[in-house]
Amino acid sequence: MATRSSFIDPIRTAPVILAGLVLVVLGLVALGVSRDWVLGIGATGLMAALAIHGIAAKQARGGQSPAAPGTGGSDEEAAASATGDLNERRAHAMAESLPALVWMMDSGGRTIFQNRWALDYAGVSLIDRTGRRSIIHPDDVEELARRRAAAHRSHQEYQIQVRLRRHDGIYRWHHLTSIPFDAAAGSGAGGSTSGSDESGFWLATAVDIEPLKQAEELQARLNQMLEHRVTETTEQLNTETAVRHRAERQLRHSQKMEAISRLTGGIAHDLNNKLMVISANIDAVVKHIKEQPQLRRKLLAALVASDQAAGLMSKLLAFARPRDLHPQYIEVAKHLESISDLLDRSMLSASVEVRLEIPEDLWTVEVDPHQLETAIVNLAVNARDAMEEGGTITIEARNVTVQPGRLSDPEIWGDFVRITVYDTGRGIQPEHLDKVFEPFFTTKEASRASGLGLSQVHGFAEQLGGTVEISSTPGQGTAVAIYLPRAELPARVGAPPVFDDLVDDEEAQVQSAEILLVDDEVEVALALQGMLDELGYATRIAIGAEEALEALRVRRPHLVLTDVTMPGTMDGLALGREIRGRDPDLPVILITGNPMVVPGSEFPLIQKPIASRTLHMTLQRYLTPAAASANVVSLFGDDKRLPSP
Hints:
Blueprint (H helix, E strand, L loop, with lengths): L9 H21 L4 H26 L14 H22 L4 E5 L5 E4 L1 H7 L6 H6 L3 H17 L3 E8 L5 E11 L19 E8 L1 H77 L6 H26 L9 E3 L1 H16 L4 E6 L7 E3 L1 H17 L5 E12 L11 E9 L30 H11 L3 E7 L3 E9 L28 E5 L3 H14 L2 E5 L2 H10 L4 E5 L8 H11 L5 E5 L12 E3 L4 H11 L8 E3 L7 E3 L2
Parallel strand pairs: 7-9, 13-14, 13-15, 15-16, 16-17
Antiparallel strand pairs: 1-2, 1-5, 3-4, 4-5, 6-8, 9-10, 10-12, 11-12, 18-19
Helix pairs in contact: 1-2, 2-3, 7-8, 7-12, 9-10, 10-11
């Protein structure tokens, strides 16, 4: 009876080998390696396993070749031996051609097979553990030893990613898989459960996954860049959202100011017209009661109240819509000294002390002096009201250079003269600081404040290209700083303007002159006529522009005094231009009750209500000696002349 060869038929042991390869392939797929590449590795790995299995079988039969034909063995044994040798050579050749490191170790840890790829890659023999250990990255040795020891104890396959040194000293990442099997019994991974691998073998493969690792690192960098860009974009979006919200708040504020402006501008004209009627009639009465001083003082107080009411209306509109300023190059120090003296003498109580701190080298600014004085007075009055038991108001001026982003408005920077008004009062609560520049907002009692002072100061500074900053500490005081841009030119210092000396109204010598008074309200026209008659002028009244043009056709006056705001197609300004086109030498003076109307370069402008002395001075300034001449040029006709009135 023939004996059975110790060579194990590869076909019979194929399922065992396939089990190990399937685990390798599944591991590579899990790592994200290309499917085609994995299938190629799996196919070549199968052939390598078959070759190594043949080698293991040969090792198991002690390296003896099968019996040759005619040497005592049966023909079947000889045929089986020849087939086994052929398969072994073929599998060996396939294993050598694999693009992966392949080696097999016996139970003692000695390498019994390594393919050419492993030898070429490492540059050293992997026969013993020392050689294999020498190509493992030092940082991976401990983890690999731990995983291998656990696998040997359980006789189970293990997989791990390690860095293996190439022959040129460069470490590359590999996916290492080690599968135990018993060549004699033909069992694969998990085929032995005895806890010992003394009669078994370990098949190891290491596939280069450096491109995969580089792809993972690239993906990580891309993810980091993406996160960074998302963060930047989010911050930019938040910034843009904040800017948009600020712009929306500014728009709503502007719309609110515009609405208030339209409301107050409409009623201001009517209110000032009524004040004109009141002040004109009181003024006329005062002139006839010189012998009654008590009644005269009461009427003069009423006149002062009328003027104050007109000033309050102007202040009401100052914050709602910026008015044209008349800036001049001024020396701030002189104006602050004048304001300080005024405050110390009249506006502040005896328990309030005013201090002035001004350097000698203060820069020049270009501002409207009257607006500057009004702003400082508003701040001083607020400071006084905050110190009910007395204290100190300090007015300080300094030259400062502001860097971008230092002020609440980051777009305002450069050289400024900073005027700061300090007080030692009760201060402002933090929740109120953001509202102090809003119109009508006040921390005082409603009967003591209108809430317009700081709004007016803020509007004044913004018109000049500056700003206002406020800081306050409850219980310690408040500081309000006005930033005025530095002027490029020095202050225009010279003699004050010279005005004609005028005697009191009652003693003024008035030329005989005819005034054409134009107004759409009869009450106002009659009040102004009475004032002009008291001053010695001859006055004709025209209700509206059309009536005024008709009156001019009848007789030429010495001067036309016309209201600005009138109904119809022609207002006072258009009437003045029409008159100038017909008679360039005829003086035209505009009067208005609307504080929003500002002086222009074409005609002089007087704001209602008008004091008789102011009206008289203005008329005398524009009446020329020619107004009293015997003959004047007619508005119509080349050679026709009309007698002077």
